Amino acid sequence: MLKLIITEAVVSKGYNDDPAVRYFSSNSENTGQVANFRIGKRVYDSKAENNHRWLNFTVKAFGDMCERVKRMKLKEGSYINIIARYDEETWETKDTHETRTGVVLYLDEIEYASSGNG
Fold it and tell me: The whole model's pTM is what?
């Protein structure tokens, strides 16, 4: 499994009317509640329009990390630094019952990113 350090990522807005950070009860007794949110990171790409593009990731936090996310009161537009484990999840769509696979980051550490001006 890969471990990533991502600096100055921005918390993305939620889908439709969903909040940016959502909380669920886990099916596992070991993890308790789960926090789920998306982040975006602007990266340089000389082939893209305006020489940059956005990478977007789903982030999940379990146990103590979920509690930390709650205490931070993250919202859309918050800038954060994270350390996370890169993995893939597989699920079945509700409508078509197709199997899908996507990247997910399992949160190990999180902090607010410094804005540089205090």
Answer: 0.84
